[in-house]
Design goal:
The chain is an alpha/beta fold and about 260 residues long. It has one domain: Vaccinia Virus protein VP39 (Rossmann fold), CATH 3.40.50.150. It is about 35% helix and about 25% strand. The protein has eleven helices and seven strands. Strands 3-2-1-4-5-7-6 form a seven-stranded mixed sheet, with helices on both faces. About 40% of the residues are buried.
Amino acid sequence: MSEEALLPDKRRVAESFSRAAASYDGVAELQRQVGGELLAELPSLAPTYWLDLGSGTGHFTRALDERYPWAEGMALDLAEGMLHHARPLGGARHFVAGDAEHLPLRDGGFDLIFSSLAVQWCADFAAVLAEARRVLRPGGVLAFSSLCVGSLQELRDSWQAVDGFVHVNRFRRFEDYQALCAASGLGVLTLARRARTLHFPDLRALSRSLKDLGAHNLNPGRPGGLTGPARIRALMEAYEHLRTDQGLPLTYQVVYGVLRKEA
């Protein structure tokens, strides 16, 4: 089965994140942590033009503006609802609706592309890298974070004990990120994978967190209709076996990449 067939439809992704725009910042602990770590990975730069790709509510758009106050910034996202939420808060001169696989941007216009926890929703990551290479200036940097196989594994395993449906979002392998970055024509400065585990008091809080982030199950093969009470009870029972002193764990396997377009 192709990678495109396994990953969510981007239209559903955009609609889901648009609906989550108002609640997103209140539950975005992981996003804040990962984006902050990605900022720390950036090499020394003095960009004139930067792009926040998959900008969401604009948290890191504003962080980039603070970091590079002399530069002109653009926030781009597939979800119109996120852009409507972010635009009044500022941080960039331009807020643009667009697809990372088909950027509506001219060649060679940016010194920095920053993208935190967005490209995991793109089925054609090779196209994302090709577009980044196209719109970067020589010497420009692409810094991205994403998710790979192993993310949400506790939830996936618990559902496997209940039924055979697809209840958890799928992600590409870390080895695929390695191969695609190596073949991109961009120089790989860093590419690493690190686990981040969150803890929740109960299954309701965990599920609510995913829904408020717009990151609940969007995959092909997901069960239609509402999940019945019996299945939820079975899921709760299965997940309770994984409980630690900190609560119910939910682990994300985070990919961090910094690539440079050679001069």
